[in-house]
Amino acid sequence: MLHELTIYKKIEDFLTWIYPLLSRLPRSEKYSLGKRVEEILVQILEGIITANYQINKIETLAELRVRLESLQVMIRILKNIGVISRKQYEFSSRSINELKRMLLGWMKSAKKTGDKEKPSSEVAFGNYYLGMDFEDEVEEKEPEPNKVLLNQRLKELNEDLLY
Fold first, then answer.
1. Which residues neighbour 123 within 8 Å (Cβ) at sequence distance 6 or greater?
2. What residues are paired with 124 via a beta bridge?
3. Backbone CA torsion sign across 98, 40, 65, 72
4. Cα-flanking dihedrals φ and ψ of residue 130, to 5°?
5. When you count CB atoms within 10 A of the terminal residue's CB, does the N or C end of the chain come out lower?
6. Is the Cβ–Cβ distance between 122 and 130 less than 8 Å?
7. Which helix (H) or strand (E) is 113 found in, with range?
8. What is the C-alpha separation between 145 and 10, in angstroms, rounded?
9. Sign of CA dihedral 42, 45, 50, 55
10. 84, 30 in Cβ contact below 8 A?
11. pTM over 0.70
12. Is the model more confident about 83 or about 143?
């Protein structure tokens, strides 16, 4: 299933990390390089989703590898012009390198198996597998409030109001 793919989780986490960074870029870079970085990341995310359901995924994975290289160049340019810090560049560079290694492993695995191993519950349709892939939990559950701490805090607030 899609949400069990480590590479999917990693790219989603990276997109979540970099999106606020891109929104804080100066106007001159936000709508040029920043927008391009965002587009490439979304294309990579969509490509991973597509490849997960394809029977012959090598071509799609190869295209994703090229997009990751482009992303790395764009982020290097952002660092070179002083828009992102060295720490931010190092983190993003490590993340992209990890994604490239994962993608290469997926490509090797797909090449070895010939993309023939999919659960029997999924049906091939053209170059895509059709199957049920729903998230188990749509929303994260909110933690149960600690009643003792809540009552203690209410007592403190009430005492403050009395004095």
1. 129, 130, 131
2. 129
3. negative
4. -110, 125
5. C
6. yes
7. helix 86-113
8. 30
9. positive
10. no
11. no
12. 83
